[in-house]
Design a protein that fits this description.
- The protein is built from nine helices and 15 strands.
- A six-stranded mixed beta sheet has the order 5-4-13-14-15-12, sandwiched between helices. A four-stranded parallel beta sheet has the order 7-2-1-11, covered by helices on one side. Strands 8-9-10 form a three-stranded antiparallel beta sheet, with no helix packed on it.
- By secondary structure, the protein is an alpha/beta fold.
- It folds into two domains: 7-48 and 107-168, FAD/NAD(P)-binding domain; 79-103 and 176-269.
- Residues 238-270 have low confidence and may be disordered.
- α1 links the parallel β1 (7-11) and β2 (30-34).
- The structure holds flavin-adenine dinucleotide (FAD).
- Flavin-adenine dinucleotide binds next to α1 and β3.
Amino acid sequence: MSIEGKKIAIVGGGPGGLTLARLLQMRGADVAVYERDHSREARVQGSALDLHEDSGLAALEEAGLMEPFWANHRSDLDRLRLTDKNGTILHDHMRQMSGAGKRPEIERGPLRDILLDSLAPGTVHWNRRLESAAAHGDQVVLHFADADSVVADIAIGCDGANSRLRALVTPVRPEYVGVTLVECVVPAAKDTVPEAWNLLGGAALIALGSERTIGMGTKPDGSLLFYAGSEVQRCRRQKTAGRGRHRRQACGLVSYELRRLEQAVGAAVR
Ligand SMILES: Cc1cc2nc3c(=O)[nH]c(=O)nc-3n(C[C@H](O)[C@H](O)[C@H](O)COP(=O)(O)OP(=O)(O)OC[C@H]3O[C@@H](n4cnc5c(N)ncnc54)[C@H](O)[C@@H]3O)c2cc1C
């Protein structure tokens, strides 16, 4: 499909939507991004991201943004400590920050700023929460919460797991697997929770056990961001999947690098 002369609307200004907007603009496309946040400073941006060579890093390379990426990445997040539920250290995993197979870390806020600054002024329309979308001939009409509407030739849903645009292409809805993560921030953590800060060794930690997990990471401003995860509801698939490997695949407390974590912590997650 040619994008020439087409009005392209991207819903969602997360890493996916902004990267796509940048790549399309580099090819001369007419792109607008509609984001529900009120501004770029609207909220804490969450955990740091490790970017992989075949996905996040490849996209930034294509977008010509490797220089600002390396200027802003977190070289100090080079360790991931694994503990059991009592804080007993099980394994210190060294992250590969350079060379083949590298997975360098960057905070979401600076990554978002890099992407935003790479776009033409006025590309992102803040405070635009998509409520619904409808096909209208060859076009798509986007209805926003402020009762405003926009017509686009191409609409792309980058609005996360609960995408409002997805309903236009499939009735499939996200499925709750029974595990909830709560995101929390402890300001000035070095002083307020020195034991936790020291246990992290200045980097990141995952504690596992008793069907619960805590993932913690230090922030450049001295705060500590953590996710407390717990299985709050037995998921539907688990009832038929039984115990052991299949049960963890269906309801895994930590989907991120589960296999490697399991090897490291042995019986702690069984
Ligand atoms: C705890 C945790 C740790 C992770 N760690 C890593 C990691 O280390 N490395 C990695 O590669 N990935 C990691 N991920 C996954 C990563 O966060 C996602 O892959 C990534 O955020 C997806 O980007 P996205 O732009 O598609 O969606 P999102 O980041 O979900 O962004 C969606 C955007 O759309 C906006 N939006 C939502 N609804 C609407 C609406 N109705 N109207 C307008 N705007 C809307 C939101 O405000 C948001 O800005 C992690 C995820 C979690 C939860």
